[in-house]
Structure formats: structure tokens, C-alpha cells
Amino acid sequence: MLVIFALDCNLREYLQQNHNKLTWKRRIQIIDNIVGGIRKIHNENAIHRDLHSGNILLFNDTIIRISDLGFCGPADKPLNSIYGNLPYIAPDVISGKETSFASDIYSIGMLMWEISSGRPPFINFENDYELALKIINGMRPKIVPGTPLEYKELMEQCWDADPEKRPDIGTLDDKIREMNRLSYQNETNENKTSQMK
Questions:
Q1: Which of 139, 173, 188, 196 has the lowest CB atom count within 10 Å?
Q2: Which of 113, 13, 93 is nearest to 55 (CA)?
Q3: What amino acid positions are annotated as catalytic residues?
Q4: In what order do the strands lie in the sheet with 56-59?
Q5: Are 9 and 58 in contact (CB under 8 A)?
Q6: How far is CA 22 from CA 19, 65, 100, in A?
Q7: Model confidence over 104-114: pLDDT tens digits?
Q8: What is the predicted pLDDT for the residue at 2?
């Protein structure tokens, strides 16, 4: 049996069209799906290497798939060049170190920020040498007011300048799933409270 899904848009387009309507529960579900997909890639001992919102596809408004696996490859076979969308590239990779599982985690941190803000990171900057230097020197997007504390802290861990301090994909997946579970519980409790009034 062949199942065909209708491509709605990529994550960047989806956020531009729907950001004001998205609850935090939905935002956490989106990042949960992305992290789950990257976990499958990492479990195959592969690195995506070009993770950004243009490569996250949404089908039927709910199914999320990671695309553009052209640079995806074995973790033990480094590439000789830097590839990707500059705002999502880890500072260690910009500085000349090899891509790693941790560089995908950095990209997830940038996606978390984009999901929280509705805008691509560093949209007001040219993707050039100057931006690369600022990223290497620690510049990160400003946290959006109203971002839940747990989400903010996890995002900051993901985009840490030191790849050793970034969570591995299993830890990240567990923390996002816990956030997703708690957001579901909070929504259920809020619904019960409003029904009692």
C-alpha cells in the first residue's frame, strides 16, 4: 500500500504563516518531531550537516520530515568543506573543526529559537564573514519574551559554543519529550479548570 502525503510547506513558510496562532504545546510538538528525526539519523551513526527550517517539510499540517540529506553521511567520514546555511552552522564548524553530532545539536538550538520567534535566526544580518565572526565570538539570537524557562535553558545548552557542553541527541530527545508531556498535562488541567467555571 502506497501512502502519499500532500506537501504543505517547509517549516520556515509554516512559521511565517502560522506563528501567531501557535500555542507553546504545538511549538514543542514541532521540535519534538524534528529531534526524533535527527535521533534516527544519529542512531545510524550519520550527521545531517545542513539542518535548517528550509529542510524541514510539513505534510498535511502535522507530519514532519527532514529533507535534503545530500550532505548527510557517516560520522567517521568528515567533509573537506563547510556546507550549510550560516545562521545554523555551529561556531566550532565555522572555525574549521569537523562536523559532528554536536554540530547538528547546535542547528537544533537555532531551530528552537526560530520556532519560538517565528523568524529565521540573524535575519537582519548578511550571511557573510562578519556574521561568521560574530557567531564564533558568541553572538546568539535574543530570547523571545514569554519563552518557557525549560525551553530557553535547553535551547541555550544546544547552542553552547563548546560542543562538549551541548546535550547528546538522546538527552535532548528525553528532555523535549518531557516538555511535550508536561505541556499536554498543563493543557488538560487548564481545560478541566475552565470546564468547572
A1: 196
A2: 13
A3: 50
A4: 7-10, 56-59, 63-66
A5: yes
A6: 5, 19, 32
A7: 999 999 999 99
A8: 42
